[in-house]
Amino acid sequence: MLFKRIKPIDQIIATAEKKSLTRQLGAFQLTMLGIGAIIGTGIFVLTAEAGQKAGPGMMVSFVIAAVVCALAALAYAELASMVPVAGSAYTYTYGVLGESAAWVVGWALVLEYTIAASTVCVGWAGYVNGLLAHAGYGLPTFLRVGPMDGGSFNLLACLIGLAVTFLLVIGTSKSAKVNTVLVLIKITALIVFIFIALPAVKDPNFKPFVPNGWGSPMGGLGVLGAAASIVFAYIGFDAVSTAAEETKNPNRNIPIGLIGSLGVCTVFYLLVSYAAVGSVGAQPMLGPDGAALQPGTPEFAAACQSSQALVCSKEALAHVLRLLHHDQLGNLIGFAASIALPSVILTMTYGQTRIFFTMARDGLLPGSLAKIHPRFHTPHVITLITGTFVSLFGALFPVGILADITNSGTLFAFMMVALGVLILRRTQPDRPRPFRTPLPWLVCPLAVIGCLLLFLNLSEKAIATFFVWGTIGLVVYLLYGYRKSNLARGIESD
Fold this sequence. Notes:
The protein is mainly α. It is 68% helix and 0% strand. The chain has helices spanning 9-18, 27-38, 41-44, 46-54, 58-82, 88-96, 99-134, 141-144, 155-170, 172-197, 222-230, 236-242, 250-280, 298-303, 316-323, 327-340, 342-361, 380-396, 399-427, 440-456, 460-484. It starts with 8 loop residues before the first helix and ends in a 10-residue tail after the last helix.
């Protein structure tokens, strides 16, 4: 039966050992890897979009998203320590719910990581284009933005995607070292922002606190709608678990990387959002009918043409400091973001290549995708393919649309991992668990409910895209993976 084809966890680990990647990442590198993915477009770019959806209430949105992701992180930590191989939620689902469910999760993760990397490419390009224009070297409009924003091809978004792809091809260790430096730059920039903006906080800027209400299903607005978008700002912890197969002592280091990176980033997010909202305000732009406009639409863009409002900015944190008359510091924040955001692109692309690598190793995709470079010891074929799509999507689509689509795959994967923990607690209670999710029968159901609530508060377009993408995935699985998988052929590995 389709849903009874389950790959034993012992076999998953044994398969990984026969065709494995080099273990070279420690707890510190993993934590920095997670912080590198988490702190990025979500706080540097999407702060403005969250303000348009929720107004000052976006601070509550950050808390809601953090709580839901923390619950999911606890589930991830248990499964990652039990099954320390590449593949993240895809691998865990394979060993718990079976091959067909694993394929659906893996296909959702393709949507998550690839589109997430493209989203950050667009965010990075916005900062760099702004700095170039300020210096008098701005690119022409048709090379600054994609077709949906009035241009033709976002050249810088494409180029940064290709550059990160090259870095990943030449080696994980080199990538991790570069990432650590970029993370430190981002943290420094956020600390500077907090110290400058926090003293300028004024109570009137928080009123009204929730101008768009709490949200409605498929509406995309309100506090819950903003929280659904802000999940994008926390998905980096998932990328940590995809590095399990390249981690030294994963049973200890993976939980440290997951929980540590999420905790550090949550503190920063709350401080930054409070300082941004309180210092300059974050009231949404309204249409002729008095209702808040959806960000990422032509109507919203038209309303923002001559506005200095925070919700209209493409470089939110730099814009806040300029409004506070700290122009040079604003430019420095913009420069820091331009230097540091590639670390997020790197981590997302890294996570996606490792998931595809594992799916190909399991026979669900052509085995040629799992080839490892003889010199660099990286899965170069799938890295080049993924990087090409990341670059093209970044060149053609706007940041808001990409972010919401990303979150649909993210939240689905979170739900599957939380369910996997509960199923394994029943079916394999004696299996060693170096990290145990506390109160699993409370934590995991709350994670599922929270993810489902946020999923339903995504925009209608994002939800529709998720189901269309899922349908395409099922067709691919039935035409290829169902017949060609190693489990179907009765073999453990190629």
